[in-house]
Amino acid sequence: MKNLILTIILLFTVTTNAQYAIISAIDVKEGSDEGYLKLEEFFGPIHDATIEAGVQNSQTVFKVTSEGQNEDYPDYIIITGFSSKEQLDAYNESWSTDAWTNFARRVYRGKMSGRAISKMMNSVGDYSNERRNYHVELVAATPFIGGDWNPGDKASMNPMIKKNDDFENYETKVWMPLIQKEVLKGNHGGWAFVNIYEKNQNAYENLTHMVFNKNNESSYSDEMMETIGTFKYQKLFEGLAESRDMLDAIELEVISSH
Amino acid sequence: MKNLLLTFLMFMTLNTFSQSTTWIPIVIEDGKDMEYLSFEKNWMSINKALIDAGYRTGWSVWKRTPKEGDEGWAQYYVVVGNNDEKQLSQDEWAPFMQKALGKSQRAISKMMDGSGIVAEARPLQISWVGGTIYAGSSIKPGDKMYFHYMTQKNENFEDLELNVWKPIAEEQILEGIRKFWGLAKVDNKSENFPGDATHIAFNIMNGDTFAQTQNTTPDWDYKTTQLMGLVQESREMLDAEELTCIYILN
Q1: Residue range B70-98: average pLDDT?
Q2: Mind listing the pLDDT tens digit for each residue in A173-193?
Q3: Which terminus of chain A has a lower count of CB atoms within 10 Å, N or C?
Q4: For A121-130, A164-173, A223-232, which range has the lowest pLDDT when averaged over its residues?
Q5: A12, pLDDT greater than 70
Q6: Which of A16, A148, A184 lies nearest to residue B176, judging by beta carbons?
Q7: How far is CA A199 from CA A158, A219, A232, B24, B184, in A?
Q8: Where are the beta strands (DSSP E) in A142-175?
Q9: Does the pLDDT of residue B159 top 50, yes or no?
């Protein structure tokens, strides 16, 4: 279950130039949701300013909505997108400087007192028990449809553990062409597959990859269902299933997107 | 087909309700660009109220990039998504606007008055024949869109566009070059609309790739090349016109 906490994935797609991302799984303290969301709201204009300045490309906050959620699930997932590993590393470094406080002062000049700004900036981390960070690189993705992420949009992600060398090929050469056809028909919102290349100490150790799906209300086509029912695809899916452990899907809903 | 339309029309129109789209080429009086943009900003407030109340599904204003030597073209294009199942009657219009905007009838009339700014509007009613999904980020002010006026020459035209050209456009989406292609049919034209266009094709690219796709010789196989020859024969197509998004609500 811990793996579920580590949750995931990206939005490489909405910003098509995002090839790297930091996926943060946030475990909020009991009864702290309101304070946490207010903090995210405070950061909204700051994210806009840092995106304009090239510190990051995008930042989206998802609420975990999986039914049957237990205490091991994270409460929120944040995905921060970057064009390059260098940009991601520079972003990480920026948090150890005054850069973000300076952005906050600039954004809230004339709107909030310096003291109030400092209070908000110092409250980062106050509402969460734990934050698990995964640094991921895009392996492959379909187009994503429907424009920018908006509050209320639905998504899901599956953490995965690679079991053999065929795994990435099964995902990109067997599954991706099928789901890509459905995306082009408007039957699926989009699919992305990422490789975890770095994680912080409290992250789930064995997790190697994640997939991310943008959901819509359409059903897969009859053609897709017929294809995956053929003997050939049943055998290919057996190979795919053997190539990795896939953890339960984590259902997500967009809270904010920048 | 519904899915295809629902994606692009996020900015043209859209949603689950029944809809039609109005395409309005606007000719402005000489040197009145600034006044026209202020005028449309007023209309943005009006359209926001109409969209919020479900009477419209989208609204956008686009500026055409002028070409050397061309004359008579509209400088701006307004795209209105209508909810055909919920429309304001003439009698309902004034009280709705007064309530929605919190302004007097006189103030609203002034907001809507384009005299001395708009020389001519040439509206078309269009309906969607088909198109690709809309991929990538939403349209924002400053984004480009390209359109071609087309005139159908034979009965295979729409089928050729949907079965031969559309898969090529979809391949460009997968390559990351394109965001959207769609074909609309002209259902009604105002009397002052020049030309004999029966259809309009719309292209939205990913970044500055339109010129690239126009200037590159396609690497099609024999069958595709032959079929594209039939596409060309099935309609007259005017050169692409480039538009830049100025305002958009959806």
Answers
A1: 89
A2: 999 999 999 999 999 999 999
A3: N
A4: A121-130
A5: no
A6: A16
A7: 17, 35, 37, 53, 49
A8: 154-162
A9: yes
Domain ranges of chain B: 8-122, 126-248
Please answer yes or no on whether A145 and B10 come within 8 Å at the CB atom.
Answer: no
> Tens digit of pLDDT for each residue in A27-37?
888 888 899 99
How many angstroms separate the CA atoms of B128 and B68, rounded?
31
Express each pLDDT in A39-58 by its tens digit.
999 999 999 999 999 999 99
Contact B174 A13 (CB under 8 A): no
Q: Give A-chain residues touching B170 at CB under 8 angstroms.
A: 184
Do residue A186 and residue B6 have CB atoms under 8 angstroms apart?
A: yes
| Residue with tokens 């896939």, as numbered in its chain | A246
Contacts with A, B 161-220, CB within 8 Å: 170, 173-174, 176, 206
CATH class of B8-122: alpha beta
**Which has more pLDDT, A120 or A8?**
A120
**Residue in B closest to A177 by C-alpha:** B174
* CATH fold group of domain B126-248: Alpha-Beta Plaits (3.30.70)
Nearest to B204 by CA among B160, B250, B147: B147
CATH of domain A2-257: 3.30.70.100
C-alpha of A174 from chain center: 23
The reply to whether residue A15 touches residue B137, judged by beta carbons under 8 angstroms, is yes
Asked if B8-122 and B126-248 have one fold, the answer is yes
